[in-house]
Specification:
- There is one protein chain.
- The chain is about 40% helix and about 20% strand.
- The protein is of the alpha/beta class and about 325 residues long.
- It folds into two domains: about 160 residues, Bordetella uptake gene, domain 1 (D-Maltodextrin-Binding Protein, domain 2, 3-Layer(aba) Sandwich); about 120 residues, Periplasmic binding protein-like II (D-Maltodextrin-Binding Protein, domain 2, 3-Layer(aba) Sandwich), CATH 3.40.190.10.
- The strands form two sheets. Strands 2-1-3-10-4-11 form a six-stranded mixed β-sheet.
- α2 links the parallel β1 and β2.
- α4 packs parallel to α11.
- It starts with a helix and ends in a 5-residue tail after the last helix.
Amino acid sequence: MKRFCIAAGAALASVIAAVVPAAAWQPTKSVEFVVTSGPGGGTDNFARIVQSIIAKHKLIEQPVVVLNKGGGSGAEGYIYGKGAKGDAHKVVFGTNNAYLLPYVAKLGYKLSDLTPVSALALDEFLIWVKGDAPFNDAKAYVEAAKAKPGSFKMAGSQSKDTDQTLTAMIQEATGAKWIYVPFQGGGAAATQLAGGHVDSNTNNPNENIGQWKAGQVKPLCVFSPVRLAKSDPIHDGKGWGDIPTCKEAGLPLEAFQMPRTVWLPAEVPADAVAYYADVMEKVSKTPEWAEFIARTAQTARFMKGKELTEFVAKDEAANAKVFKNEGWVVN
């Protein structure tokens, strides 16, 4: 009888175990937010606002620490993520450089070393010229560049990165030719344009807002399917929503946007991916995130799963085409 009871108890336990699902994945120690840029950069600001929102709303029970690894245009952070294979306590913050860097540089990682979690926003790109430049719309500036090929200078952040890629796309679409001048970051590109050392740049809104407020630079158009959200006036009575799209301005290039992305190392549990995707989606619905998006003039767009995978595939293909045409592909 005793043996029967023990056997019955064991059988019951096994049935309960089969019926009751295992607890969903939760972090059991400190979580590292690995930032693929230096302190103060766009990706750093992205990770830190997410960290602060998580802390305020208690979305993760364990401590979250930010670790900057921005060497090699962000490759350092992705390589660090590769080395943490299977460890879901390492969360990597980046952009589309996660899947584009391996095209243009020989690096110690590839996209399959990372697991996509989510994207929370799209960074916008604009054509900016000096505040006193004679051009008041993008088409006029492009026509001037076409009339004098190679005499106008376009500043950007880094070589073979988003700004130079966009410049190549503009050239391909319009037939105009610029001398591309790379700088260490968008801040330097903004300073050089304000000082008149270059003729234009393709900075994000947040990178040029200070110079626009001072009237040192002016935006001609934004590479977005729709205009930016309305805002308070920045300069001369105009705000972000008053800037025409580049398509409206007559350029045959509708959109160029950079996703703010979140990744995990390879071979992490599927429920860990779902856990962080859920956390990031909750972050994207907070008033603090809405304020950050408005302040930086980004476009809020949360993506995960199939939607994110399809976006990455389309964005990767568009950029890879430019890399091949420009002869930048190294692998």
